UniProtKB/TrEMBL annotation:
Residues 16-254 form the Orotidine 5'-phosphate decarboxylase domain. Keywords: Decarboxylase, Lyase, Pyrimidine biosynthesis. The keyword Disulfide bond does not apply. The active site is at K96 (proton donor). SMART domains: OMPdecase (SM00934). It comes from Lentiprolixibacter aurantiacus. One of its GO terms (biological process) is 'de novo' UMP biosynthetic process. The lineage of its organism: Bacteria, Pseudomonadati, Bacteroidota, Flavobacteriia, Flavobacteriales. PANTHER family: OROTIDINE 5'-PHOSPHATE DECARBOXYLASE (PTHR43375:SF1). It catalyses: orotidine 5'-phosphate + H(+) = UMP + CO2. This is Orotidine 5'-phosphate decarboxylase. GO terms for molecular function: orotidine-5'-phosphate decarboxylase activity. The keyword Lyase applies.
Length: 269
């Protein structure tokens, strides 16, 4: 399983940092817009600058789909570059797919076989037959949305459903899915107070934790409540790292921010 390499990286780099590649042409340094593929050039600069401190990278697929075929080509070049130059890092397609049967299988093939990502985020609302097609792929991981960092999470995810919050039902039910050992879960850093109880339900699974940095999540609280014996955390930072500067020194600025987070993470390991 790729998680064995992930755990090794965490020990070697003293880091559980995931860098989110939410690349927006309106926010990248203006001088890159003259490049043939500014999205890929920007991503390459961020990857080169931060890969010493990050154990995972997470392109948000919407930021590539928004540019049509041009964006998909940039995504393909980005994942190819990651797999060629940093094969040890864990790659996540933040796609939040959620459909059933053959459709789910096609989504899984797109991200696991064609693009060669290690993991993909999946919405659980349609149940087991929207998740299990992803879990069929050996050495690949499905990251289920459990308790997200946005304010709208309280619309449904924390609502009481027959004596149990919906997100807890998602966690408990998903453990019975075929190949459930391939599951990871999204838990927002802005919901850190829920992490201890989440850990009691899924003690051994990795948690992908967005929301540290620009969204105001606390790394210390995440570690206090969410860390297990294998660390079991991937803490994502996107805007706080990749847009640390929009000048020609954007890579160095991103490296500094990633290094600061890595050094803080090292104190919790």
């Amino acid at each position: 399983m790729k998680t064995a390499f992930l755990e090794q990286q965490i020990r070697e780099k003293k880091s559980f940092l995931c860098v989110g590649l939410d690349t927006d042409l309106e926010k990248i340094p203006p001088h890159l817009l003259d490049e043939e593929d500014p999205i890929f050039v920007f991503n390459k600069g961020i990857i080169d600058a931060t890969k010493d401190y990050a154990v995972a990278f997470k392109p948000n697929i919407a930021f590539y789909e928004a540019y049509g075929i041009r964006g998909w080509k940039s995504l393909q070049k980005t994942i190819d570059y990651l797999n060629q130059t940093a094969p040890e890092v864990f790659t996540i397609a933040d796609a939040k797919r959620g459909d059933i049967g053959n459709t789910a299988q096609r989504y899984a093939r797109a991200f696991f076989e064609d693009l060669q990502f290690d993991a993909v985020t999946v919405a659980p609302y349609m149940g087991h037959d929207s998740v299990e097609p992803f879990l069929e792929f050996q050495d690949k991981h499905t990251i289920l949305l459990a308790l997200t960092s946005n304010s709208g999470a309280f619309d449904f995810q924390t609502r009481d459903m027959e004596g149990q919050a919906l997100y807890k039902q998602v966690l408990n039910t998903s453990k019975s899915y075929r190949n459930a050992g391939n599951l990871m879960y999204v838990v927002g850093a802005t919901k850190a107070e829920f992490l201890a109880e989440i850990r009691s339900i899924v003690p051994d699974h990795f948690l992908l934790v967005p929301g540290v940095g620009a969204q105001g999540g606390s790394l210390s609280e995440v570690c206090q409540h969410g860390m297990n014996k294998q660390v079991g955390l991937l803490v994502n930072s996107s805007r706080g790292i990749i847009y640390a500067s929009n000048g020609r020194g954007y890579g160095e600025a991103a490296r500094t921010k990633a290094m600061e987070l890595q050094r803080e993470m090292a104190t919790y390991l």
